Amino acid sequence: MASSNGLFPSTLFKFDNLERPVQLHLQNVYATLGIGMLSAAVGAYVHLFTEILQAGLLTTIAAICLLIWLASTRHAKENLNMRMAIFTGFTFCSDVKLFKHLDHGFLFCVPSIIATALLGTAVVFISFSLAALYNNQRTYLYMGGFLMSALSWLLILSIGNLFFASRLLFDINLYAGLFLFCAFVLYDTQLIVEKRRHGDDDYIWLVQDRVIGGGRMFQVWPQCC
Fold first, then answer.
1. Would you kindly state where each structural domain of the chain is located, as residue ranges?
2. CA terminus-to-terminus distance, the chain
3. Using alpha carbons only, what angle is made at residue 136 by residues 216 and 24, rounded to the nearest 5 degrees?
4. Which residue of 26, 40, 61, 213 is surrounded by the most CB atoms within 10 Å?
């Protein structure tokens, strides 16, 4: 009886609609994503609870340099360990900055804010990724143009609000941005599948994009709560 239940774990994560190479590629993608999230958590801990390294100009420059280094390093079996190390360093440096706006006083007043943001980000990533993987029509790929246009408008809105300092524009930008990042999870998941079907198996480079999106989503949650 349990095996016939569509929510049973043995069938929930069984993607018979995907080819075996694509399934293996997705395993690599999400394993690498897990490593990136662990590195990001270490970076956050270092910023919040130690004096070793603080978010600032140096960590920003380091993250940019590591990203350029990762992009310029050829995806090959012999470079796998080096590229993974570069990726781990990038997630460490980039996600140190995510907690720049959270100090110890804020965490003392709202101690559950990190857990809430982490849970919200995880729920969005898991549910929207599963929705995209179970969609055989790949219809979410058609959202690419709309999402890029919406992202451009949000950028213009953010720049304009620097001059107007409107709370309404800030809230619109905040919640529209959260909705946009959720939609990007659908789009990026199907894009990863289609890229693998067309021969692109560079899962480390694909994951860095998801790490950046997930980090921005994590950063938005405390402001929405």
1. 18-109, 135-200
2. 40
3. 70
4. 40
